[in-house]
Amino acid sequence: MDHFEYRNGQLHAENVAVADIARAHGTPCYVYSRATLERHWHAFNDAFGAQPHLVCYAVKANSNLAILNLFARLGSGFDIVSGGELERVLRAGGDPSKVVFSGLGKKAAEIRRALEVGIRCFNIESEAELDRINAVAGEMGKVASISLRVNPDVDAQTHPYISTGLKENKFGIEIGRAEAVYLKAAAMPHLNVVGIDCHIGSQLLTLTPFMDALQRLLALAERLQAQGVKIHHLDIGGGLGVRYQEGQAAPSPADYMAQLFTDERLCQYEIFVEPGRAIAANAGILVTEVEFLKLSEYKNFAIVDAAMNDLIRPALYSAWQEIIPVVPRTEGEMATYDIVGPVCETSDFLGKERDLNLQPGDFLAVRSAGAYGFTMASNYNTRPRAAEIMVDGDTVHVVRRRESLDDLLRGETILP
Ligand SMILES: Cc1ncc(COP(=O)(O)O)c(C=O)c1O
Ligand SMILES: N[C@@H](CCCC[NH3+])C(=O)O
């Protein structure tokens, strides 16, 4: 259970009772395990053995500075999608020369800043972006290292909202056009072609789509090399899924790499990988308190103090995440509840039809909440965002305090 385990009748995060954290720091709060985060990062890094590679942690999954700093200390690279994420990486002590910049709407100012600090590579998503990066680099008297994010038209077999590698998706450059665009890029004075990039989607539980995409990338790389465009690295993106639910099977990073490297052509390139969820999801929980129980003959609701503004995945993708009691009751009855928040939307639920033995005041933990939890949180209904807490062995660190109402209202003005 990844450093979140029941001991002495209650849930622990590493060596600390989660109920003690909830009482000391209030709910809702996110609780992360340092040991789990580091173990997951190493699982990716070690899966490569002696193969030249760079693990570029996808910052969007969980961008808390303390987490980025842990990975920076391990020598990690980072996959960013905005100037904001770049500043986070820098502030956390990340090495800009290990940063790849993805995303399809890079603004000139963001490109300028990335060139100024010397990132490793821009993953370019359109021909227009090629022109913009060439122009900005030219103004600065620099040469930008680039790869094209290729859209291989492969079905990632995941939720349609997080599939990115089909030709109808907005991402990347259609693979049929890629060769022509590469030749154009290679001729631009302020661009240096260094790699090929691809990211077909998130929460993939089978390896076949990754293999299909890889075959297309390798074939493209061969065609480009034959035309004198030197390809140094292949960036295979992120996307490896995790087990959210009992009975789900997710390939490990080691399984994933073993499968990819069955094609030996891969060994001639440096391999970049951009995992987010597979590193962070099961390293975090969202802890919430039951405020009220609302019972009827049709339906039981447990109204809790976390809501869709804290964790939007259930509302947005009908995502299923396990919900467990922090201190399981030894007396009383199980009942079937929808676990809902206080937000004024019917889609505001964390889980539906869960069998739990509950009383008001109980703490619940939503598991697998370390990725795309806090980073997707909002202030909807003028709700302050939750605290983020990192457990490191016996020690509890508040790595982001709960927002205050002052934080929330800052910057707004009324008319004179
Ligand atoms: C370009 C890119 N790289 C990496 C990731 C990280 O994906 P995941 O969290 O599924 O590993 C994403 C998000 O899907 C992405 O868009
Ligand atoms: N936000 C999504 C994943 C999207 C990945 C970003 N490209 C999730 O919570 O599952």
Automatic annotation (TrEMBL):
This is Diaminopimelate decarboxylase. The gene is lysA. Homodimer. Its EC number is 4.1.1.20. The active site is at C344. GO terms for biological process: lysine biosynthetic process via diaminopimelate. Keywords: Amino-acid biosynthesis, Decarboxylase, Lyase, Lysine biosynthesis, Pyridoxal phosphate. Specifically catalyzes the decarboxylation of meso-diaminopimelate (meso-DAP) to L-lysine. CDD domains: PLPDE_III_DapDC (cd06828). Pathway: Amino-acid biosynthesis; L-lysine biosynthesis via DAP pathway; L-lysine from DL-2,6-diaminopimelate: step 1/1. It catalyses: meso-2,6-diaminopimelate + H(+) = L-lysine + CO2. Belongs to the Orn/Lys/Arg decarboxylase class-II family. LysA subfamily. Substrate binds at R277, R313, Y317, E345, Y372. GO terms for molecular function: diaminopimelate decarboxylase activity; pyridoxal phosphate binding. Residues 29-370 form the Orn/DAP/Arg decarboxylase 2 C-terminal domain. InterPro entries: Ala_racemase/Decarboxylase_C (IPR009006), DAP_deCOOHase_LysA (IPR002986), De-COase2_C (IPR022643), De-COase2_CS (IPR022657), De-COase2_N (IPR022644), Orn/DAP/Arg_de-COase (IPR000183), PLP-binding_barrel (IPR029066). Pyridoxal 5'-phosphate binds at G239, E274, P275, G276, R277, Y372. It is an enzyme of class 4 (lyase). Residues 35-281 form the Orn/DAP/Arg decarboxylase 2 N-terminal domain. It holds the Pfam family Orn_Arg_deC_N. The modification N6-(pyridoxal phosphate)lysine is found at K60. Its cofactor is pyridoxal 5'-phosphate.
